[in-house]
Write a structure and sequence with these properties.
alpha/beta; FAD/NAD(P)-binding domain; five-stranded parallel sheet; 24% helix; globular; binds flavin-adenine dinucleotide
Length: 408
């Protein structure tokens, strides 16, 4: 048996398999996952799940029956250890190798490790449900939490812990939160809502070392300060799981390099999701994204390509985050923006920041204004002629402007 083999059973792997089937691919499909459970949602792990807002069984994306109906076989709890590209086989840790005609690599990304935390107790990273289970158990008895890294996952865990009444400190090495992905207005907004929930954020601070101090972890800061914590969450970014692809001779540069159809530099091997790098027309360079929307949209193109249907992946990047009562949504890429306009009211926690580069709308960061995101996608994709003055004028008809553009 050969057909399609997919490595990784999360958003990208599952979507690629489904899209291949839906586009008419009739050969066998097998998805290998090193996690011993049905595919599940990751975003709630740092949010509702830690607050008992969602039960484990509600995290499952698709049940057994769904896969059986689609004739997609899941090989769970089994790690792919080597891709034999010329022999067209994926070697597994414990089971016989799987032969393939086409391969999709959807291995995602893993948490970057902090070397000084190695071997200490009560240090947590958050990527999987197993990580979240362990973190949640420890959080129930911890009084003081230190989060290293003020990125999305770190801040979401900080917000959840603060809601649970924990004393929370965030250590961030730069001068503002999520500097690379967010506008300064949104960084400041986030700083303020965390401050209002008694979370201390130490900016421009680096961790130089860590030691065990009884049951606590002691964090040594570059300025000489020492912080003690019952629990440390390290959220310092992700690394693409792309080594196996590189070892198989597939081009990897900060992710498996794929074209607009998810195809690598070897036509029988495709890839999608967090583990890939692709050319993005908005910033005119290769980028690697970590978001559910990206994983699913790119996998739709990869799955369709396997069935011989060309679906270009050129979706405008989207991301969301929930912290306290703020629903953050971002569309576009704000990198290099040189002007901005605010629509709505920061004081009321309902606003959008429209970001422009060279007079062109390139991104919108919103807080509790989902409508702006929906319209914004069309405005960015369609290259709308919108000025900052119009964007900040709440009476200016954005929907009407979007209606004049070609559909996405
Ligand atoms: C706590 C948390 C909160 C998040 N919140 C948001 C959010 O609010 N909004 C948003 O858009 N995104 C969010 N994300 C990011 C989003 O979850 C990821 O971008 C998305 O899961 C990527 O999907 P993927 O399929 O590419 O990879 P992953 O979801 O990382 O899945 C890859 C899978 O492949 C498996 N695998 C890896 N190597 C092998 C191997 N050799 N053999 C077999 N299996 C293997 C992995 O174990 C994993 O199951 C969050 C992520 C986390 C961890």
């Amino acid at each position: 048996m050969s057909g399609l083999v997919v490595i990784g059973a999360s958003y990208a792997g599952v979507q690629a398999a489904i899209s291949a089937r839906e586009a008419g691919y009739a050969e066998p499909i097998r998805i290998v996952s090193d996690e011993d459970m049905l595919p599940y949602q990751r975003p709630p792990l740092s949010k509702a799940y830690l607050l008992d807002g969602v039960a484990e069984d509600k995290l499952i994306i698709r049940g057994d029956k769904y896969f059986a109906d689609k004739k997609i076989d899941l090989v769970l709890g089994e790690k792919a250890i080597r891709i034999d590209r010329t022999g067209k086989r994926v070697e597994l840790q414990n089971k016989p190798a799987l032969a393939f005609d086409r391969l999709v690599i959807a291995t995602g990304s893993r948490a970057r490790q902090l070397p000084s935390a190695a071997g200490l107790q009560n240090i947590f990273y958050l990527r999987s449900l197993a990580d979240a289970l362990a973190l949640k158990a420890q959080l129930s008895t911890a009084a003081e939490l230190v989060v290293i890294g003020g990125g999305f996952i770190g801040l979401e865990v900080a917000a959840s812990a603060a809601k649970l009444g924990k004393k929370v400190t965030v250590i961030e090495s730069t001068r503002r939160l999520i500097e690379r992905a967010l506008s300064p207005v949104l960084s400041e907004f986030l700083r303020d809502i965390h401050k209002n929930h008694n979370v201390t954020i130490r900016f421009s601070e680096t961790v130089t070392g860590m030691t065990q101090n009884g049951a606590k972890a002691e964090i040594h800061c570059a300025n000489g300060d020492k912080l003690n914590a019952d629990l440390v969450l390290v959220g310092i970014g992700g690394i693409p799981n792309a080594e196996m692809a590189a070892d198989a001779g597939i081009s990897v540069q900060n992710g498996i390099m794929v074209d607009a159809f998810g195809v690598s530099d070897h036509s029988e091997v495709l890839a999608a999701g967090d583990c890939t790098s692709h050319f993005n027309a908005l910033v005119k360079r290769n980028i690697r994204l970590e978001s559910v929307q990206h994983a699913q949209d790119q996998a739709k193109s990869a799955g369709s390509a396997i069935a011989g249907k060309q679906v270009v992946y050129d979706a405008i990047p989207r991301f969301w985050s929930d912290q306290y009562d703020a629903k953050l949504q971002m569309v576009g890429l704000s990198e290099g923006h040189d002007a901005h306009a605010i629509r709505g009211s920061i004081a009321d926690n309902k606003f959008s920041v429209f970001l422009f580069r060279d007079g062109k709308l390139v991104a919108i960061d919103s807080v509790n204004r989902p409508g702006d995101q929906l319209i914004g996608r069309r405005l960015i994709a369609g290259g709308a002629m919108l000025s900052p003055a119009q964007a900040s004028d709440d009476s200016f008809d954005l929907k009407g402007l979007a209606g004049t553009l070609a559909p996405e």
